């Protein structure tokens, strides 16, 4: 049985690990080949070590409140390498009127906070009395937030959250596709506060994104390398991107850039949708078109290594996000050395700045050196930085994060229908069901289970 996996990010590596493990447990012989166009595993995950600083190119980690990523490392006996964030870094900030305001963690803090005006707080409190939506409209995040919490809360609480997760525009993103748990609170319980209270009373787990941010010792790229080394029947072919996929005699015939050709009985796709759209054109034009409908937002990430004496702000927290109303060129900054003290040498600070997103596509046309200067200017006055950074490391992604716009659920159904029609084709990664590491590992686990069950049924 030959199984192909296209894409060597966390989704592809997790799928390879679990498929290998499950086949072995079932006593099924299988040859697994993972094809990755880059010369290393990682995808959007990458780690650079520079003068004692550990700088991530993409995700910073995952929340330990969801099971699948934890299960992945547990199954691979790599739990000891997990790195929980510092307890002191739980504080998060939002910029309002050019000042950093601590995001309230408790109801009492919300009442005294400057995050919203008195009228804005009253409007949020009135959410308890807002009736449940009566139609099935696929609301945007902004439509939902404004309807239930008010415009001010949408602008200063929800909009920066959307920037922090999707680098997206809440006026375009679908609530039920991007934040299904939040949509379910209203659908099931009639409102946000009602739902959170009921879930708390039932002890049914957190209603929101709880948990501790968790990374991996030495950086997330080490996690992928270690996971790949735990597989027994997987061949990793790096630097070999896929150009074309066809279905010939019930096999997936795959041609790569290096003129290699493979025939697979089962095919798992975890690469970006715009890449998959190109290589599926000859096999299924409708599938290709649906994959191409998903828009991607650009991102520019730059890490600044600083001497602590050159930073006036104590960086006591996770970092801060900036609402679009503040008219800044950056989306926010993470205080990486406060989140994970191991990421900077003693006496040094590491700040990671994020720019771009769906609202700021102009970054694609700017030279990297100009963007670095913008990023540094963006944090200078806020954090009180003097002098020059000791280390600068940047990463530019012209197509970084998929955006689940209104109507995304229709795209999902179209892709699901096409993949089922193709037979033994599995679409994973962050294309359909969520963009976070936890979403990706959950999807990979479900694909592995389904694939192995299909093999058993075909025997």
UniProtKB/TrEMBL annotation:
InterPro entries: Amino_oxidase, FAD/NAD-bd_sf, Protoporphyrinogen_oxidase, Zeta_carotene_desat/Oxidored. Keywords: Cytoplasm, FAD, Flavoprotein, Heme biosynthesis, Oxidoreductase, Transit peptide. Pfam families: Amino_oxidase. Residues 10-449 form the Amine oxidase domain. GO terms for biological process: heme biosynthetic process. Pathway: Porphyrin-containing compound metabolism; protoheme biosynthesis. Its cofactor is FAD. It comes from the Bacteria. Its main location: cytoplasm. GO terms for cellular component: cytoplasm. Its EC number is 1.3.3.15. GO terms for molecular function: oxygen-dependent protoporphyrinogen oxidase activity. It catalyses: coproporphyrinogen III + 3 O2 = coproporphyrin III + 3 H2O2. Involved in coproporphyrin-dependent heme b biosynthesis. Catalyzes the oxidation of coproporphyrinogen III to coproporphyrin III. Belongs to the protoporphyrinogen/coproporphyrinogen oxidase family. Coproporphyrinogen III oxidase subfamily. This is Coproporphyrinogen III oxidase. It comes from Flexistipes sinusarabici.
């Amino acid at each position: 049985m030959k199984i192909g996996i296209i894409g060597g990010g966390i989704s592809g590596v997790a799928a390879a690990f679990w498929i290998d493990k499950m086949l072995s447990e079932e006593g099924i012989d299988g040859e697994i080949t993972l094809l990755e166009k880059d010369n290393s595993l990682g995808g959007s995950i990458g780690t650079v070590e520079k003068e004692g600083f550990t700088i991530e190119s993409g995700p910073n980690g995952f929340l330990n409140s969801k099971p699948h990523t934890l299960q992945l490392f547990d199954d691979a006996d790599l739990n000891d390498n997990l790195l929980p964030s510092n307890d002191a870094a739980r504080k998060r900030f939002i910029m309002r009127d050019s000042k950093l305001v601590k995001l309230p963690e408790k109801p009492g803090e919300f009442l005294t906070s400057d995050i919203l005006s008195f009228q804005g707080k009253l409007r949020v409190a009135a959410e308890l009395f807002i009736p449940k939506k009566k139609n099935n409209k696929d609301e945007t995040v902004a439509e939902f937030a404004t309807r239930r919490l008010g415009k001010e809360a949408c602008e200063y609480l929800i909009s920066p959250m959307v920037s922090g997760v999707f680098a997206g525009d809440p006026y375009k993103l679908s609530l039920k596709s991007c934040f299904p748990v939040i949509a379910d609170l209203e659908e099931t319980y009639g409102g946000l506060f009602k739902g959170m209270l009921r879930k708390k009373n039932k002890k049914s787990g957190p209603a929101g994104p709880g948990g501790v941010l968790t990374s991996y010792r030495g950086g997330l790229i080490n996690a992928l390398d270690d996971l790949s080394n735990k597989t027994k029947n997987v061949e990793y072919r790096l630097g070999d991107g896929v150009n074309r996929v066809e279905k010939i005699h019930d096999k997936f015939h795959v041609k790569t850039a290096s003129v290699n050709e493979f025939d697979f009985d089962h095919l798992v796709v975890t690469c970006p949708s715009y890449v998959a759209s190109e290589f599926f054109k000859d096999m299924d034009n409708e599938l290709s078109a649906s994959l191409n409908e998903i828009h991607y937002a650009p991102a520019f990430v730059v890490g600044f290594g600083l001497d602590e004496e050159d930073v006036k702000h104590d960086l006591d927290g996770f970092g801060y996000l900036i609402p679009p109303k503040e008219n800044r060129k950056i989306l926010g900054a993470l205080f990486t050395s406060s989140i994970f003290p191991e990421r900077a040498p003693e006496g040094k600070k590491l700040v990671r700045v994020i720019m771009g997103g769906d609202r700021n596509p102009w970054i694609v046309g700017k030279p990297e050196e100009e963007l670095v200067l913008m990023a540094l200017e963006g944090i200078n006055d806020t954090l009180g930085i003097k002098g020059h950074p000791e280390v600068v490391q940047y990463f530019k992604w012209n197509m970084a994060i998929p955006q689940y716009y209104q109507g995304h659920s229709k795209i999902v159904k179209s892709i699901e229908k096409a993949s089922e029609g193709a037979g033994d084709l599995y679409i994973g990664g962050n294309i359909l069901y969520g963009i976070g590491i936890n979403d990706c590992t959950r999807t990979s686990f479900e694909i592995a289970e389904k694939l192995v069950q299909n093999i058993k049924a075909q025997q």
